[in-house]
Every structure is written in C-alpha cells, then in structure tokens.
C-alpha cells in the first residue's frame, strides 16, 4: 500500500513541467565555497531563463521537500538515522556522515540541526523535485528538474555530494504509483560513474542503465559496474567529435535493446572542458548538442523523458544549462502544447 505523499499532487496545466525551488540553493556561512561545486548554480539557471523571457515564477512547478516517509521508499532507516546522528546520541562526531558525503570537512564540527537546515533540506527539496519530475514526464511527455541527479547515493550509502538517491526514488515511485510503467532506462551522461542507482538496481531487469563516464576518476566502483547494461568508458581529455558520436550511437543502441516506458536523463555538465573533477574536454556547444541528441531520441521513440542536472563544477555551467533548455525549446523538443496534450495518463 503506497503512503500518502505531497510529491504526486496535481499540478496546474498552466505550468511548464520545469521544477525548481529557491530552497535548492545552499548558502551556509561560506562553507559551501570549500567544495568546487557551485551550490547556487540552480538559481542561476532560473535567472538566465527569466532573463531570456522564457520563464516566470508562476510558469514553474514549485518543488516540495521529500519527507522521511517518501525517502523510506528506497532508503534504509539506518542510513537516514546516520544523517541525523541518531545512532550514537552521545557521539562527539556531530555531523561526521554529512561531512563525508559533502566532502566539506568543517561540517563535522557543526550541530546537526544546522546541517539539516542548510545542507540536507536543500538536497531533500531537490530530491522531491526529481520525484515530481517523473510524474510530470508521464503526464506531459517531458520534464526537467533544475536540480537533482544525486547518482552516487544508493539506498544505504551516500557520497560525492549525493545524500539522497533521487533517481532510484523517482523510478520506484513510478513503478509503484503509475499504471503501465514497468520499464525504465537511465541515460547517465555525467562525467562520473553513477554507482548509486547502479547498486540499487543491480538485479532489477526492469531498469536498463547506460553510463558514459571518465574511467579514470571517482568513484571507480567495480561492483556497481556489473549493473550497467551499456557501459561507455572514456579516457582523459575526450573531445566533442568522439563523445557525441558515442552518445548518439549508444543512446540509439540502448533504446533498440529495450524500449522503456520512461527515460531518466542524468545531464551532468562536469564533462565541460576545464572542469576540475570531470577530466573531459567537451565544449559548451557540445553539451547543448548532447542534450539535443538525447531529447530527440526520446521524441523519436515517443518515450516520456525527465532530466536532472547533476554535476558541474565551473561557474559558467549554469549558463550552459539554460542555453541547452532554450535550444530544446527552439527545436520543438520541449514545448507547452506537447505538455498539455499528453496529460491523460492514468495515475
């Protein structure tokens, strides 16, 4: 029996299936600057889209925070307790687990209630946004969560700035709650291997995983690689020509191998040339073209698709994400007419 959740409530048909909340952005006494991740990038994407007169506040879907009950659809209680330090009430470790996940060592010395408010609540809100994006994609044909894509987190372990398994959660919600959704394909094009969702779906044939990543960087999770149905390992400095050829070839190959009921696209921008963690050499134009290839494949096969923005560690990645969304719109790969036209699916 499914629990009651606010994440699957009806959304006005006047809204585009673009999900965001100002609560996505992490500002915490400057500590966020100790990690290369731009913890305000999500708000910057929205700023650029508003500047181009593409969006207004009332046109967006307001993301809601995933509750503990929502998170327990995938996560173990033990893991969620670790994030709250409930296992060792007298522990001097304070926020050790969150400091490890976010890779910001000073967080270890902060009271957990502050970490909950300033770090984990934004990540829970983005997680809620991904779950909502899954529902909207089925109703409208496509959806974009301006945040999310925490692909290093599995049911019982976080890492790499990923505290909640939003991709796994979105798929499980769809399987549990939406009639006719029984197969999903994850297209993970972040520069890093998506070991979190891979561990979660290790023995689940309903979920087809394609992962394209730099073979030389974090996390190097050999066990999780066993879950990848279509593995494309890249070398340092891979550029546009080779990268786009492989993406186009393998996305098509993945859809020919298993035609899913829904596609989840993890669209990390850490493939950008100069990214301090990604190690690849893709241009801004290459990223825009990559997103176009994925959305075009979904449209050609009539598969609902939802996108999450995942990693990206340079200040100008927000501009690239905005430009990519505008390009998808200009090419007719996302549009509001399509969104309204598909809203007959049974929930």
Secondary-structure blueprint of this entry?
Blueprint: E1 18-20, H1 41-51, E2 61-62, H2 68-71, H3 77-84, H4 96-102, H5 112-140, E3 142-145, H6 166-177, E4 184-188, H7 195-200, E5 207-214, H8 222-225, E6 230-234, H9 240-257, E7 262-266, H10 284-300, E8 305-308, H11 317-330, H12 336-341
Helix pairs in contact: 1-11, 5-6, 9-10, 10-11
| Fraction of residues in β-strands | 5-15%
Overall mean pLDDT: 91
Provide the gyration radius in Å. Answer: 19 Å
The percentage helix is 25-40%
Contiguous helical run count: 12
Structural class, judged by helices and strands? alpha/beta
Give start-end ranges of low-pLDDT stretches: 343-347
* Order of H and E elements: EHEHHHHEHEHEHEHEHEHH
Shape: globular
Strand order of the biggest β-sheet: 2-1-3-8-7-4-5-6
Task: Note the main sheet.
Answer: 8 strands, parallel
Total beta-strand segments: 8
* Termini Cα gap: 15 Å
Describe this structure in words.
- The chain has 347 residues and is of the alpha/beta class.
- It has helices spanning 41-51, 68-71, 77-84, 96-102, 112-140, 166-177, 195-200, 222-225, 240-257, 284-300, 317-330, 336-341; strands spanning 18-20, 61-62, 142-145, 184-188, 207-214, 230-234, 262-266, 305-308.
- It has an eight-stranded parallel β-sheet, with helices on both faces.
- α1 packs across α11, α5 crosses α6 (166-177) and α9 (240-257) packs parallel to α10.
- The protein is globular.
């Amino acid at each position: 029996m499914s629990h009651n959740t606010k994440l699957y409530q009806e959304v006005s048909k006047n809204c585009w299936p673009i999900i965001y909340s100002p609560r996505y952005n992490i500002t915490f006494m400057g500590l966020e600057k100790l990690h290369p991740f731009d913890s305000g990038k999500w708000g910057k994407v929205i700023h650029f889209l508003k500047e181009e007169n593409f969006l207004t506040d009332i046109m967006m879907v307001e993301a809601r925070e995933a509750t503990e009950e929502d998170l327990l659809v995938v996560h173990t209680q033990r893991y969620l307790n670790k994030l709250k330090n409930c296992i060792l009430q007298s522990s001097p470790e304070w926020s050790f687990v969150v400091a490890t996940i976010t890779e910001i060592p000073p967080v270890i010395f902060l009271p957990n209630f502050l970490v909950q408010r300033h770090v984990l609540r934004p990540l829970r809100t983005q997680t809620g946004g991904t779950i909502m994006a899954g529902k909207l994609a089925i109703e409208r044909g496509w959806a974009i969560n301006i945040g999310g894509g925490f692909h290093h987190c599995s049911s019982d372990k976080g890492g790499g700035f990923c505290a909640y398994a939003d991709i796994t959660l979105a798929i499980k919600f769809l399987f549990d709650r939406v009639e006719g959704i029984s197969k999903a394909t994850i297209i993970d094009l972040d520069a890093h291997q998506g070991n979190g969702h891979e561990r979660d779906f290790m023995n689940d044939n309903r979920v087809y995983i394609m992962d394209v990543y730099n073979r030389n960087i974090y996390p190097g999770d050999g066990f999780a690689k066993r879950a990848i149905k279509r593995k494309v390992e890249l070398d340092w400095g891979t550029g546009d020509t080779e990268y786009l050829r492989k993406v186009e070839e393998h996305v098509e190959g993945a859809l020919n191998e298993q035609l899913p009921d829904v596609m989840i696209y993890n669209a990390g921008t850490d493939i950008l040339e100069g990214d301090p963690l990604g190690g690849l050499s893709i241009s801004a134009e290459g990223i825009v073209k990559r997103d176009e290839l994925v959305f075009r494949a979904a449209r050609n096969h009539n598969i609902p698709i939802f996108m999450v923005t995942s990693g990206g560690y340079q200040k100008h990645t927000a501009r690239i994400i905005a430009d990519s969304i505008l390009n998808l719109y200009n090419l007719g790969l996302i549009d509001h007419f399509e969104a309204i036209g598909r809203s007959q699916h049974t929930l």
